[in-house]
Specification:
By secondary structure, the chain is an alpha+beta fold. The chain has seven helices and 22 strands.
Length: 397
């Protein structure tokens, strides 16, 4: 007899239930659930442990998906505190200078528009601002921004292009004008720390640090005359730093940042600053007279090649200005005899204790003195050297 469900299947009825009475229509037979549940639970636990151990097994760190706790730091280093204090104390004396150029705009309309930018610093509470002459060269006007953010129209007081220095003035309240502290440059040492504050690329009140890289450098001024005793530094100096202060570790002014040596025009670690001893001599004259009253001897000098052919070192005096200090001191000019033979005049080989080997040397030596001073001039005359005392006087316009 054939079963109505089809061929006999040993699994059709569970043992002990040949009729299938224990089955419910539409529902599978009941099986044991405990063992599969336990096996699943065990697998889940093992998987969780494997996930936790995976970084150790692979050597990878656990990703930080939450903000990390802040690690407390110790005290700032002593040199850090000193630098921070220096900037806090000196930066109010530094200013940002914007130069203006007069342009025609539209029909019959003239307007001053921004033309350039540079740095400067406050010299006194009267509002005098020191900067480079090349910062304001060609400008029709200038504005000065102080540390507190206020801007002031500036007037030109004086320019010394031979030294690349200029003085402006702003009419701001004295309490807003803390003057910079002035140091010296004659006792600087290569290797000592320096700090520059300025506005490179228009980024105002930027601090850079470095050392004195070299001393006694010479650079050309706007007029082509030589600026002597210039400070070389590796503190980053970029366009916009010009006219800003170079400081020693005490925060004293030791130079005015003026030039860089760089093919690209950006800082290459070779910057130059006009020494403060020159600044401190020139700026008071600019404030008082608007120009530098250069002292003079009253001589016209000859071509240096003439002396080189004669094998003599120095500057040849060609002629003496009548009534000049040189004439009163008895200096001799070059002359010719009746038969046309050239008789060389005095050859200046030193002034005020400085060696003179060229016209630039003579100008540089003179500029270290003031009108009215008596200086010793060493001259070569009649085959021997001698010292002559000369009282200098102001150059005539």
């Amino acid at each position: 007899m054939t079963h109505p469900r089809g061929p006999m299947d040993p699994d059709a009825f569970p043992p002990g239930d040949p009729t299938g009475s224990s089955r419910v229509r539409g529902r599978p037979p009941r099986r044991g659930w405990l063992l599969p549940f336990l096996l699943g639970l065990l697998a889940a636990v093992l998987a969780a442990q494997l996930v936790g151990a995976w970084p150790r097994l692979t050597g990878r760190g656990r990703p930080a998906v939450q903000p990390l706790p802040v690690t407390p730091r110790g005290d700032l280093a002593e040199d850090e505190r000193a630098t921070i204090e220096l900037f806090r104390r000196v930066s109010p004396s530094v200013v940002f200078i914007t130069t203006l150029s007069r342009r025609a705009r539209g029909f019959m309309e003239i307007q001053d528009v921004p033309a350039g930018a540079g740095s400067g610093f406050l010299w006194d509470t009267a509002g005098h601002v020191v900067t480079n002459a090349h910062v304001i060269e060609g400008a029709s006007a200038a504005r000065v921004a102080l540390h507190d953010g206020s801007e002031w129209e500036a007037t030109l007081v004086g320019v010394a292009p031979d030294h690349d220095l200029a003085v402006l003035r702003v009419r701001a309240p004295a309490e807003r004008l803390p003057p910079i502290l002035v140091g010296t440059s004659h006792d600087l040492l290569v290797g000592q720390k320096v700090f520059a504050i300025g506005n490179p690329f228009g980024l105002d009140f930027t601090l850079t640090t470095g050392i004195v890289s070299a001393l006694g450098r010479s650079i050309p001024s706007l007029t082509g005359r030589r600026i002597d005793d210039v400070i070389q530094t590796d503190a980053a100096i970029n366009p916009g730093n010009s006219g800003g202060p170079l400081l020693d570790s005490s925060g004293r002014l030791i130079g005015v940042n003026t030039q860089i040596a760089s093919p690209s025009g950006a800082s290459a670690g070779v910057g130059f600053a006009v020494p403060v001893d020159t600044v401190n001599r020139v700026v008071p004259q600019l404030i008082e007279h608007g120009r530098v009253g250069r002292p003079q001897l009253g001589v016209a000098v000859g071509n240096e090649s003439l002396l080189r052919r004669a094998g003599i070192k120095g500057v040849l005096v060609m002629s003496i200005l009548p009534g000049s200090p040189a004439e009163r001191a008895g200096l001799r000019g070059t002359s010719r005899t009746e038969n046309g033979t050239l008789v060389l005049g005095d050859v200046i080989q030193g002034l005020g204790g400085r060696e003179v080997a060229s016209t630039d040397d003579l100008f540089a030596a003179l500029e270290r003195h003031a009108a009215g001073e008596v200086v010793k001039v060493r001259v070569w005359r009649d085959g021997k050297a001698r010292d002559v005392e000369v009282r200098l006087e102001a150059a005539r316009d």
